């Protein structure tokens, strides 16, 4: 994943589609619903964790994890100055190195004049920076040295924030501090990387998505997004809701592995990016995921608290095996992925994992 991508990505064969994965047009009723839900979107002020409002704030995080799968952080400890610099240099890099390539790719694929819905590619320009366990920061081409150092600093702060959030989730779940970090650790530590994306203006946003609907495969995702150009939506109660752009915020969403470890108490949520006719949307999504050989399974403590029929419990699997399956089924529903993992569960030994 080292190379910078200007090509649009295609999935493999369809498999058990969730109805919400299909295209649907906005109605007046849906617009009213979206505006209401945007106003209620979970906003967490992390400064309040240090004072008298800690209990209320922890309850807000709990509600967001149980009912949204997303929440937005302010006062998260990453300076506005650093975020402004990351935004400027990311946008400058796109203009300098990637914009023309994207335009050439669009021309080559004759995407400007499409008449029918495009369901097998995304309107995005991306590259991937891997931070852990081994960095590729100095191998990715065309990056200025200052940008590399900046992203190294930014990634370090995001890693610390991710681990802080995992412990807040542990506290709400009644798990011992550090449980989720240990569960992700494997033998070499977590996988951590940043997908740097730009979503250029699209002449036919009703026919092609910026990014098709999916849940994230991994652990916890930290998103620094454009505050001027919107487009990110999540599925809430059967309707698509805008994730409100907010300056200097970090948007958090939960991946499939958190759903498995919590035995479904917290769920990963379908989300997508709607292409826009005006403006290029910047998105830096950082994925704090289990290590390749980490064995993922529902936390025994949670199974004890909420006795569950064995047939309904989530599977136990090696994270890398899940990712190999996900690679072909990213844009399909998650439930068949869990079922496929359950089918091979007998072959999984515990290995280097957290204990309850």
Word description of this protein:
The longest helix has 29 residues. The strands form 3 sheets. The chain has a 7-stranded mixed sheet with strand order 1-2-9-6-11-4-3. A 4-stranded antiparallel sheet has the order 5-10-7-8. The chain is built from 9 helices and 13 strands. The chain is globular. 37% of the residues are buried. The protein starts with 27 loop residues before the first helix and ends in a 13-residue tail after the last helix. Helices cover 35% and strands 18% of the residues. It has 356 residues and is α+β, with helices and mostly antiparallel strands. Helix 2 links the parallel strand 1 and strand 2.
Q: What is the compact description of this entry?
A:
The protein is an alpha+beta fold.
Write the layout of secondary structure elements.
Elements lengths: L27 H13 L2 E3 L8 H14 L2 E5 L5 H29 L16 E8 L12 H29 L5 H7 L5 E9 L11 E4 L5 E6 L6 E5 L2 E4 L7 E5 L1 H6 L9 E3 L7 E9 L5 E2 L3 H6 L11 E2 H11 L5 H9 L13
Parallel strand pairs: 1-2
Antiparallel strand pairs: 2-9, 3-4, 4-11, 5-10, 6-9, 6-11, 7-8, 7-10, 12-13
Helix pairs in contact: 2-4, 3-4
DSSP summary: helix tally: 9
- The Rg value, from CA coordinates, equals 20 Å
Structural class by helix and strand composition: alpha+beta
Helix percentage: 25-40%
Q: Which spans have pLDDT < 50 for at least 5 consecutive residues?
A: 5-17, 23-30, 352-356
Q: Could you spell the SSE succession in H and E letters?
A: HEHEHEHHEEEEEEHEEEHEHH
Q: What strand order characterises the main sheet?
A: 1-2-9-6-11-4-3
**Per the principal axes of the C-alpha atoms, what is the gross shape?**
globular
Beta content: 15-25%
Q: Report mean pLDDT, rounded to a whole number.
A: 87
